[in-house]
Design brief:
- With about 120 residues, the protein is mostly helical.
- The chain has one domain.
- The protein is built from 3 helices and no strands.
- Helix 1 packs antiparallel against helix 2, helix 1 runs parallel beside helix 3 and helix 2 packs across helix 3.
- It starts with 19 loop residues before the first helix and ends with a helix.
Length: about 120
């Protein structure tokens, strides 16, 4: 009983420390992905507005489907401009989809409310 029990310390795996240039490159890539999502959202919002202006019926469901198609198109755009050097997780795609939805909704709503005045 004279033996001292040493406390076990958890083994930590050291991650490769990123250099400043690597961090900047990742940051620029995230900004580009967000910019693409915003631009696609605005384009789809304007397209939804013009579709609703020429349609006799309410096209809310069609406009929403256009927005979902915009989210899918983003993946193909990322492949074309070679931004998929790492796999995007579910959280990343949720963020991309939300940004597209938010800008689609804002641009479509602003355009629709400006014609009602």
């Amino acid at each position: 009983m004279g033996e001292e029990v040493q406390a076990e310390q958890p083994i930590t795996l050291s991650k490769k420390a990123k250099t400043k240039l690597e961090k900047q490159a990742e940051h620029i890539e995230r900004i580009q992905r967000t910019g693409i999502a915003c631009i696609i959202g605005i384009i789809i919002g304007v397209a939804s507005f013009y579709l609703s202006a020429y349609a006799a019926k309410d096209i809310g469901l069609l406009a929403f489907m256009l927005m979902l198609a915009g989210v899918v198109i983003q993946r193909h755009i990322f492949v074309l401009i070679r931004m998929t050097n790492k796999k995007l997780g579910a959280k990343d795609w949720f963020y991309q989809g939300f940004m597209t939805f938010a800008f689609w909704f804002m641009s479509w709503t602003i355009l629709m409310s400006s014609t009602q005045l």
